[in-house]
Amino acid sequence: MTDTTISEKTVAEVAAAAAGAARAFAATAPRERGAALVAVADALDAHAAELIAIAMRETGLTEARLTGELKRTSWQLRLFADTIVDGAYLDARIDAADPEYVIGPRPDVRRVLEPVGPVLNFAASNFPFAFSVAGGDSAAALAAGCPLVVKAHSGHLELSRRTAEVVTAALAGAGMPEGVFQLIEGQANGVELLKDERIRAGAFTGSTHVGRLLADIAASRPRPIPFYGELGSVNPAYATYADQALLDGFVASVAGSAGQLCTKPGFLFVPEDADLTSVPAAAGAVAEHRLLNPGIGRAFAGRRDAVLGAPGATVLSAGEIREDEAGQRYATPTVVAVDVDTLRAHQEELLEESFGPLSIIVRYTDAAVLPELHRDLFPGNLTATVHARPEELADGSLADLVDALADTSGRVLFGGWPTGVSVTPAMQHGGPYPATTSDATSVGTAAITRFLRGVAYQSAPQELLPAPLRDDNPWGVPQHRSAAGGSTEWGSFAR
């Protein structure tokens, strides 16, 4: 694919159009911008059959999976629409002028979160709807009031172009400024745009290698910008028992969407005496599934060879890889077992993320070593999971392990499996490096804060204040007010 944009514009013209739309888009009233997001959601739903058919052809994902993913995408837009109208995300704070302020006279100070400006979003391969053209990062940036440029993923270009057409028409129909949404293609164009001074933030979902390269570009600009990259995560799970139901659930989570999920459990820790005889049958019952594209297929084949060849690894299910005449690979689950000593001794072969239907079961002899082991081997994860009996959860014996998981993971699960990220206000989909480049969430309403910056106005006339900070509050957003005279009561609530 040549490095061309979807339109006739150059990269510089795309950046200029986004920058030109920034002030007008930031000034849109909450209900107007929220209505625009709802219009996009409605348009995606109206074109669902067409879009899903294209996605199935380009990615090999199933109709059921893609139907659910598109629904998630459109309803995420609706959730952000309500978030905008509610206005609490703006964190509007108003401190009244106070000549008797205890540490010296205080002027009138008002602070609010404002859009950072044009955002560049690098779309993901494994979620052609939910983390692509109209997905989570795009929805959060548009909700924040930031013009958006999406760099299409080469694995689903036709879908990206058609989705962009749907989104562009919906935004225009809702009266949003021209230049608010644009699509570009090609790696070179994406890098060039990331370096453009008019881009004020970046977002990415993909491999650790590529994400780190882009993050370094963003940080090394003459004017560095925030870059929110979701990179690699192995999502370890720790179990104090291993019955058949647990192991069947584990295999199902590993095999879902051919293991091409950022929350796939890459490791399951079980007691040394756990009976793993049900794993081969569970893995063997899974039908082959096409991997997303030839590049991902080649990478998975290499990782699978490295894991199967690791010294001390016991193969529970070798799985299979089949390549067709177009270079697409189809895989069934691979599961191996090792002990803790083998895992420590062969980290190079075993610890790297395997993006595909492969996972490693680790036998341990003493649960007391798990917190330290986890901190040593898994410093940054999107998720970590605990499976334990109710009495073990209640007696506090797992407190140290849970502390270790919370220190190193964005989401800690008790029971269940991490694949499947609910789009809900309280969700955290992020984690310490290398899970992400910046420990923020890319799912849930808190994701909007990545594309906002705080601005304080001191002694400003009402006519020049942004709407959320004015005394008449025309947008009707929540305002936290600190009245004059309150400073003399500081500390009273702590007594």
UniProtKB/TrEMBL annotation:
**Protein name per its UniProtKB record:** Aldehyde dehydrogenase family protein
- InterPro entries, per this entry? Ald_DH/histidinol_DH, Ald_DH_N, Aldehyde_DH_dom, Aldehyde_DH_Superfamily
SUPFAM superfamilies (alphabetical): ALDH-like (SSF53720)
Enumerate the Pfam families for this protein.
Aldedh (PF00171)
Ordered alphabetically, the record's keywords are: Oxidoreductase
Q: Where is this region: Disordered?
A: 469-495
Q: Which residues form the Aldehyde dehydrogenase domain?
A: 7-367
